[in-house]
Amino acid sequence: MEHPEAQHGAHGLGIGMVGYAFMGAAHSQGWRTAGRVFDLPLRPAMAAICGRDPDAVRAAADKHGWAAAETDWRALIARDDVQLVDVCTPGDSHAEIAIAALEAGKHVLCEKPLANSVAEAEAMADAARRARTRGQRAMVGFNYRRTPAIAQARRMVADGRIGVLRHVRVSYLQDWIVDPEFPLVWRLRRELAGSGALGDLGAHIVDLAQYLAGERLVGVSALTETFVRERPLPAGAVAGLTAGAAGVAARGPVTVDDAALFTGRLASGALASFEASRFAAGRKNALRIELNGDHGSLAFDLERLNELSFHDHTAPAADSGFRRILVTEPDHPYLEAWWPPGHALGYDHTFVHQARDMVAAIAAGTDPEPSFEDGLQVQRVLAAVEESAGKNCVYTPVPA
């Protein structure tokens, strides 16, 4: 089989991206910056961006540095100058676009969660396995793996620094829908988003827990809740929803969870707990994870994303405790190309690192991580959480 670098020419890798909103902007930053910071074996070329609104997608192309704009994702996949398709759309279209791109001979990066159902994720993983035999690569975008402190924590766990793992506890909290008058955007509709806080936030923390632990969840027990069950319709028509009577604001049902709380067991027997909520007033993007082992503990807080907290339980008790590791040294993950020690990185850098890793894998002819199979496994956990939550009933005490 021809080496992947030969397939793309000596220097370039044409990128086509579907979607231009929040994640589209973040991914654009990654593609625009990766080749300027890292010495990449292939140079990402931002060939085309795609969206349904011609004026909006053209404006996004101009703003973010894309050479061309398309309004049909099929046309984007068919372009000769596109070798990699980056899928940044709502979850209901992930499977169709990603599978079509793989079948057309393109590499694929797909935002998380991989799909809206296990069946869709299975079809995507199958397509990725078939494409692999042709030299194509597929990766799911769990960008928090690319935080240098998280990557350093994975190294430390793998090196045995915390010993035998006993506990993982992780939470991801936001507050952007606390107001009951916040409109019924696509993320609050099951047919578009698949699930609510569970898929949006829970997918990240399930992946991080398994990545850092180096093992998979084998069982869960869960509760979910939707606190506000009806919301105003956003401006403009909403497909499938009925407008209100004259003088009454049109409203529609919220069909996803607002919060998910679940426990789990890892393959080794270690215990895990998870909380994902978009109703934690005052928490904007608060992701926290802690791992406890018999030799020590590690903790990470996204609001202090250049730092790790590490406790060495083998040290003398008189001077032991958690200490701060500033993850900005040149030998920390990804830091060899950035600024001098102590000069902090931010959220957007995770997408630069994601682009770097994807390009490096394509050039080397190796499988990038996390793979579509990894995304499928997370999807199965999310489905198990929903199944468990559906079986757990509310206990009502009997009056005395």
Task: Describe this entry's structure for a reader.
The protein has helices at residues 4-7, 22-37, 54-64, 73-78, 94-103, 118-132, 148-158, 190-193, 197-213, 349-364, 372-391, and strands at 12-18, 43-50, 68-70, 84-87, 107-111, 138-141, 165-173, 217-225, 230-232, 251-253, 259-266, 271-277, 286-293, 296-301, 307-312, 322-326. It is globular, with a radius of gyration of 22 Å. Helix 2 (22-37) crosses helix 10 (349-364) and helix 6 (118-132) packs antiparallel against helix 11. With 400 residues, it is α/β, with parallel strands linked by helices. The chain contains eleven helices and 16 strands. Strands 8-11-12-7-13-14-15-16 form an eight-stranded mixed β-sheet. 32% of the residues lie in helices and 24% in strands. Residues 1-7 have low confidence and may be disordered. Helix 5 (94-103) links the parallel strand 4 and strand 5.
Label this structure with key terms.
globular, 11 helices, six-stranded parallel sheet, eight-stranded mixed sheet, disordered N terminus, alpha/beta, 400 residues
Strand content: 15-25%
Count of strand segments: 16
Oligomeric grouping of the chains:
single chain
Mean pLDDT: 94
Span from first to last CA? 76 Å
Largest sheet: 8 strands, mixed
Helix content: 25-40%
Helices and strands, in order, run as HEHEHEHEHEHEHEHHEEEEEEEEEHH
C-alpha Rg (nearest Å)? 22 Å
Assign an overall shape: globular
Question: What strand line-up does the widest sheet have?
Answer: 8-11-12-7-13-14-15-16
**Which segments are poorly predicted (pLDDT under 50) over 5 or more consecutive residues?**
1-7
Count of individual helical segments: 11
Helix/strand/pairing category: alpha/beta
